[in-house]
Structures are given as structure tokens and as C-alpha cells.
Specification:
329 residues, alpha/beta, 2 domains, nine-stranded mixed β-sheet, three-stranded antiparallel β-sheet, 10 helices, 14 strands, 26% strand, globular
């Protein structure tokens, strides 16, 4: 690991960067492996190139897509209670730091937050984020960690070894299988330490009439978002996907809360990638993303099985989203 300090000309460094030099899986390798599998799939992380990220930002603003605004309202309305449940002098560790909008809501409400520690694989993004947070919160220790939070790593020690609270918003945990979600929580329980905390945003099971349109909006933005991964493959890898020959296909099981998104081949066809040929039968599906929903009790049971005590949960009035505070047992 390389540990660097912000090379600004100021007398005191505004932030530190701890670079674990994460090795990012190549798009080509992941795509070839996924197309060769019995159930064809593309890992969801490859949806988020520059164009995909812009489309996802648009999705978050759509009237059908309730998750982002519902979580934000919970964090805004209940910020004081959430901060009280977390306690003072905490180091806030955010997984997959985005714009930090949600983390700022907590930082503003927390009693004497000791540090903000965003973890992300994008070094450039982390440096920009660390600069913004350091500028906005003078006196707050900002330790940017360039790493893959799904892989084991040793966190940099703070000089005071303060308690840490992990922050995993956005219902990102729903993109994991239940087994992977348990492994993620369990792995980080050891890192956070006894009495460490985990604050998690979790989308709740809801009627199909509400959930399905959130992933199949009337304007077709979500369909363009998923199809963009094929556009990316054509542009970056010289693949020859006929994008129009695939249909965005979301499926939601109201009883289990499982949301699965595929691209369905509309005809029998052959696609060429990296010198290899892959055949699709008519109606064959290419898996691109999961977005699992939980009942509150089911998620708390999952957390307990991963080594946590369910402390508190906040749910919006429509029971669409929840924010949980978990304590490492």
C-alpha cells in the first residue's frame, strides 16, 4: 500500500490518500468469461462507464424511481436520531463513495465526527472527493482509501484508534446475493471491531406495481442504461452486438423481493468479442443486474448471522425503504 499526503502548498495537509493499488478486472476478460458461462452474464459494475453513470443519474431523478429520494428523505428527516444512535467522535467509513451527498447529511448531524474515510477503486474520484470534503469540513480528518471494499484489506490506523461506523447507502447491498451480502457484512465486522457500527440503506419488499416501473420507466431511460453496456462493448472492445436486437427485461418476484434485470435476445444471433463467437438463441437472456429487496426482519436476521446486533431502523411512511444501524456483536 502506498500512503500519500495531499501535496498542496498549505502548511497542514488537507487529506491523506492510502492507495492499495486495486487491480480492476478488465472489461474484456469479464465479458468473455460471462458470455461463455451457461447462464450468460455481464457483471453489473461494468454498467457504470461515463455514459452509464450519466444515465443512472437521470434514473435517480425519474418519477418512477423512488429509492434515492426516499432514502435521502429518511437521512434528512432522521439525521439527528441517526447521529445519536451512532454517537460522538466516530470515524465514518463510506463504501463506494459517490457524490458524498448522503455522507454529508450524517457528517452535518454527527457530534464531533473524527474522520471521514471514503473507499473507492477510482483514485481520481477519491482525490476530488477528499478535496471537496476537506474544504467543506475544516478540522475533519479525511483519509481517502483507494481499494476494492469487497476484497480483504487492512485499514489505516488513526492515531487515536477511534470507533468506526461503516456507511453503505443506496441499497447497494441489494445488488449482492444473500450469500455475498452476508460475506460482506461479516468481513467488515472484523474490520470495524467490537462495538463498531454499520449504517446500511436497504430497499424494502413492495408491491410489483411500485417496484417494477422503477426498473422499467415510461421514458425508457433504464432500458438505455442497461443497453449501454453493449454499446460500451462495441466501442471499447470492437464487439458487434446488435443493440436493437436485445430488449431490457426486468423481473420482480413480490413474494421474495428478488429483482433481476436481463437483456433478452429478440432473435437467434451470433456475437463476436475478442476473436471469439458467442451464439444467442431467440429469447435467451443475458443477466446484467440484481436488486434484491428485503423485509425489515429478514435483513436484520441476515445481519445477525453476519455478526451484528440490529440496533435501530428507520422506515419511510410508505414502507419502501429502510436505514439500519447495526452494531458489531
Amino acid at each position: 500500500m502506498n500512503s500519500l499526503v495531499d501535496p498542496s502548498p498549505e502548511a497542514e495537509p488537507r487529506f491523506s490518500l492510502h492507495d492499495f493499488a486495486p487491480v480492476q478486472e478488465s472489461f474484456e476478460d469479464a465479458l468473455v468469461q460471462g458470455l461463455a458461462a451457461p447462464q450468460k452474464a455481464i457483471p453489473a459494475r461494468f454498467l457504470y462507464d461515463e455514459a452509464g453513470s450519466r444515465l443512472f443519474d437521470r434514473i435517480c431523478e425519474l418519477p418512477e424511481y423512488y429509492a434515492t429520494r426516499t432514502e435521502l428523505k429518511i437521512l434528512t428527516d432522521q439525521a439527528a436520531e441517526i447521529a445519536a444512535a451512532i454517537g460522538p467522535d466516530i470515524a465514518l467509513l463510506e463504501f463506494g463513495a459517490g457524490s458524498s451527498q448522503k455522507a454529508r447529511l450524517l457528517l452535518d448531524a454527527l457530534d464531533r465526527p473524527a474522520a471521514y474515510e471514503p473507499i473507492d477503486v477510482s483514485r481520481e474520484h477519491l482525490v476530488q472527493l477528499a478535496e471537496e470534503i476537506a474544504d467543506g469540513y475544516p478540522g475533519l480528518a479525511v483519509r481517502a482509501i483507494c481499494a476494492d471494499y469487497t476484497q480483504p484489506l487492512e485499514l489505516p490506523d488513526s492515531e487515536t484508534r477511534r470507533r468506526r461506523a461503516g456507511f453503505f447507502p443506496g441499497s447497494t447491498i441489494g445488488n449482492l446475493t444473500e450469500t455475498d451480502a452476508r460475506a460482506f457484512l461479516s468481513g467488515w465486522a472484523g474490520q470495524l471491531g467490537r462495538d463498531g457500527l454499520m449504517v446500511v440503506g436497504v430497499a424494502l419488499r413492495a408491491p410489483q406495481a411500485i417496484v417494477l416501473p422503477a426498473y422499467d420507466d415510461a421514458q425508457g431511460v433504464t432500458a438505455r442504461f442497461t443497453a449501454n453496456v453493449l454499446v460500451r462493448a462495441n466501442r471499447e472492445l470492437g464487439a458487434d452486438f446488435d443493440v436493437a436486437a436485445f430488449r431490457h427485461t426486468p423481473d420482480y418476484d413480490e413474494a421474495t423481493g428478488k429483482m433481476t434485470i436481463h437483456l433478452t435476445s429478440l432473435e437467434a444471433q451470433t456475437v463476436h468479442v475478442a476473436g471469439r463467437s458467442f451464439t444467442f438463441a431467440e429469447r435467451e437472456r443475458l443477466h446484467v443486474e440484481d436488486s434484491n429487496k428485503y423485509a425489515v426482519g429478514d435483513f436484520q436476521a441476515l445481519a445477525r448471522s453476519a455478526g451484528y446486533v440490529a440496533e435501530t431502523v428507520w422506515v419511510d411512511p410508505r414502507e419502501l425503504f429502510s436505514v439500519h444501524v447495526l452494531r458489531v456483536a
